[in-house]
Write a structure and sequence with these properties.
Elements (H helix, E strand, L loop, with lengths): L2 H11 L5 E5 L3 H10 L6 H12 L8 E6 L1 H4 L9 H7 L3 E5 L4 E3 L7 E3 L5 H10 L4 E8 L8 H21 L2 E8 L7 H21 L8 E2 L16 H15 L6 E4 L6 H14 L7 E6 L1 H11 L6 H19 L13
Parallel strand pairs: 1-2, 1-10, 2-3, 3-6, 6-7, 7-8, 9-10
Antiparallel strand pairs: 4-5
């Protein structure tokens, strides 16, 4: 029913030089970030913050889509314009976070499974009617002593595949996000092993659930050492390990991979993406781009600080990070760009 629409949307989401802004923080996550900066944790402040992001001039040049949270997709500007319309008028596709968060996995300490499948078909219809054309579901895989377990990888992959099937049935392009956390002290090699097992399992489950791979987007983490590992590596090593893993696991019919930033610094997330696109330009079957949250928003949020007089400066900060990541998606970024005023 939605085949051609889904194909066109998926292709547009990974258009050259464009990426996806992840603005789908839950109440709790948004409030935690606000608290650290002394911003009041109210619905109105969350609305004002999202308005600042979505009305920034020129972001349609760099963002193909924005992932929204349930609260946000129902909100409007202070002048009463729905956020979905603001985005569409800027040429940006609205999307929606569909998962209900990661919860403890039974009989498996220190591991989690993502919930939210109950009632999902009805929620997809509601969001489609509100203007959403793609969705996101995040699975969380932790590397640690004896983990991840095979069971944790399998149950999360199965849930991702069931979510993706319901999305395609209901007209939403599924972003499939299996995040291998960078928390810990694991090596690049251990990260590679876990990414490989996770991605192969995810695509096995997607196949079993009949997912049309040309109508989805993969949102992977990068193959990177744990943040506390004494063995940190160069951007080129991250790029080569990540692309090698993707080539081993991701079918060529997937239109693109939009990476999560996963706690990397703003500049590292940009540099790693750029290294992949520089080293492998024209050699890969899918587009490699970004779907960052904090790595796009953090500077803007700090600059804004909840104050109306800071909106223009905050929007300038968002524009700058968006421009840098757009360049990285084309393999044209350099750290010299960080010093250039917008």
């Amino acid at each position: 029913m939605y085949t051609e629409e889904l194909k066109a949307t998926a292709k547009a989401m990974v258009a050259p030089g464009k990426g996806i802004l992840a603005a789908d923080e839950s109440y709790g996550t948004a409030n935690k970030r606000f608290q650290k900066l002394g911003i009041p944790t109210t619905e109105e402040m969350r609305r004002a913050y999202r308005e600042m992001l979505f009305t920034a001039s020129g972001i349609g040049n760099f963002f193909s889509g924005v992932i929204l949270f349930d609260e946000t997709i129902r909100q409007s500007t202070k002048d009463g314009v729905p956020f979905t319309k603001v985005l569409m008028d800027a040429g940006i596709i609205p999307g929606i976070k569909l998962d209900a968060g990661a919860k403890p996995l039974a009989k498996s300490p220190n591991e989690v499974v993502t919930e939210g499948l109950d009632g999902l078909r009805d929620r997809i219809k509601e969001y489609y009617d509100m203007g959403a054309r793609f969705a996101k579901w995040r699975a969380v895989i932790t590397i640690g002593d004896g983990i991840p377990s095979r069971r944790c990888i399998e149950v999360n992959a199965h849930a991702l595949a069931r979510y993706a099937a319901l999305c395609q049935e209901g007209g939403l392009v599924p972003i499939v996000e299996p995040e291998v956390l960078m928390d810990g002290d694991h090596t690049l090699e251990r990260s590679y092993e876990v990414h490989q097992e996770t991605l192969k399992t995810v695509f096995y489950e997607l196949h079993r659930q009949g997912i049309d791979l040309d109508q989805m987007i993969l949102k992977p983490s990068m193959v990177i050492p744990g943040e506390n590992s004494p063995n940190q590596v160069s951007a080129e090593e991250v790029a080569r390990a990540t692309v090698k893993c993707l080539l081993d696991c991701v079918p060529a019919s997937v239109p693109g991979c939009a990476f999560l930033s996963g706690g990397q610094s703003d500049e590292d997330a940009t540099a790693h993406l750029n290294a992949m696109n520089q080293l492998f330009k024209g050699q890969l079957p899918w587009h490699l781009t970004f779907s960052y949250g904090r790595a796009l928003q953090q500077a803007a949020m700090q600059t804004w600080g909840g104050r109306d007089e800071n909106v223009a400066a905050a929007q300038k900060a968002l524009y700058h990070r968006a421009k840098c990541n757009s360049a990285a998606a084309l393999g044209e970024y350099s750290r010299d760009m960080e010093a250039i005023a917008v």
